[in-house]
């Protein structure tokens, strides 16, 4: 909605069953106390169902998504209180995160083919799970490091100073910048 949604304990939460958690936010969603999952307050939580979030407002507290094909479209601000802004550690389906706004905190995706498209600002690290993942950072800024895991992963980078660490598998970096710190990539292509 367009107003403020605050919770003493957390959130917006869906813990399983049929359907999905769908949130369209143009106001504020905030976790304001430390009642938590893994020690961090969370503002949104969807376990065993897909989470679909469209945010043009502000989300404060960790969005937590589990086993679902999660879709997050952020043109506002997402701020995690303890490092994790978007976290899908047990994801079993493909996740897609598109950011034209600001994300403050780390991002971790699940273990299938995931996409992170950043045309905004990410202040934190990006952890892509196993699977053939893609990070497209063209037109955006990431102040942390992209960490790849197993799979044939691809990063697309157009900013000097970016950092990416390849994982197991055939990893490819497509670069539109000359001063990029890369490690453990099998293919590096200057575009």
Structural key phrases:
191 residues, mainly beta, 11-stranded parallel beta sheet, single chain, 9-stranded parallel beta sheet
Our count of helices gives 0
Percent of residues in helical segments?
under 10%
Strand-and-helix sequence, N→C? Answer: EEEEEEEEEEEEEEEEEEEEEEEEE
β-strand amount? over 45%
Estimated structural class: mainly beta
The largest β sheet comes out as: 11 strands, parallel
Mean pLDDT: 81
**Cα shape:** globular
Catalogue the unreliable spans.
5-11, 81-85, 87-91
The first-to-last residue Cα distance is 42 Å
What is Rg?
Answer: 16 Å
Number of DSSP-assigned strands:
25
Structural account:
The protein has no helices and 25 strands. The termini are far apart. The chain has 191 residues and is mainly β. Strand 5 and strand 6 form a beta hairpin. Helix content is 0%, strand content 50%. Strands 1, 4, 9, 12, 14, 16, 17, 19, 20, 22 and 24 form an eleven-stranded parallel β-sheet that branches. A nine-stranded parallel β-sheet has the order 3-8-11-13-15-18-21-23-25, with no helix packed on it. Strands 2-7-10 form a three-stranded parallel β-sheet, with no helix packed on it.
């Amino acid at each position: 909605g367009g107003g403020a949604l605050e919770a003493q304990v957390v959130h917006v939460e869906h813990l399983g069953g049929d359907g999905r958690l769908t949130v369209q936010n143009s106001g504020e969603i905030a976790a304001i106390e430390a009642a938590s999952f893994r020690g961090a307050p969370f503002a949104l939580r969807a376990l065993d169902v897909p989470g679909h979030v469209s945010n043009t407002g502000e989300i404060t507290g960790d969005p937590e998504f589990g086993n679902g094909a999660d879709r997050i479209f952020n043109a506002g601000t997402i701020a995690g209180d303890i490092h994790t802004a978007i976290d899908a550690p047990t994801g079993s389906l493909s996740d897609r995160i598109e950011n034209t706004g600001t994300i403050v905190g780390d991002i971790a995706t699940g273990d299938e083919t995931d996409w992170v498209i950043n045309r905004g600002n990410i202040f934190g690290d990006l952890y892509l799970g196993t699977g053939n993942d893609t990070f497209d950072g063209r037109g955006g800024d990431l102040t942390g490091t992209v960490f790849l895991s197993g799979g044939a992963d691809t990063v697309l980078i157009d900013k000097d100073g970016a950092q990416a660490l390849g994982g197991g598998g055939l990893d490819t970096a497509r670069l539109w910048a000359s001063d990029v710190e890369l490690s453990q990539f099998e293919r590096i292509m200057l575009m």
